[in-house]
Amino acid sequence: MNFPKVFSDRRVDDRLQSFSLEIVLDGVQYPAINWSLSGFLVTDYYAARTPGERVEGSFRICTDMNSHPFKAVVVRHNSATGRLALNFTDLSLSTISALEAFMTGRSGG
Known about the structure:
By secondary structure, the chain is mainly beta. The protein has one domain: Beta Barrel (Thrombin, subunit H), CATH 2.40.10.220. The protein contains one helix and seven strands. Strands 2-3-4-7-6-5 form a six-stranded antiparallel β-barrel. β6 and β7 form a beta hairpin. It starts with 15 loop residues before the first strand and ends in a 6-residue tail after the last helix.
């Protein structure tokens, strides 16, 4: 599924305050502080990133250890705190289904 190319820091979807997603960027795992169907916020990310930059990575949901690829755009990055916010730009239907299943408690975990 392709999302609009224009990104915004406005919250569209409710965010889960949970470490239930493990994000992989550049081969390194990062915990998600919160996430939604729109994107996520990770901590401990100190590599250089610029708002508007496009990135690719993957994530795993704690109850579904399959790797789910994603494409996203950087919304903001604070190298002092290590927080990186990304908005998804491309997710497969199966990935969206897996996220929705976890959010609604249908994921078997």
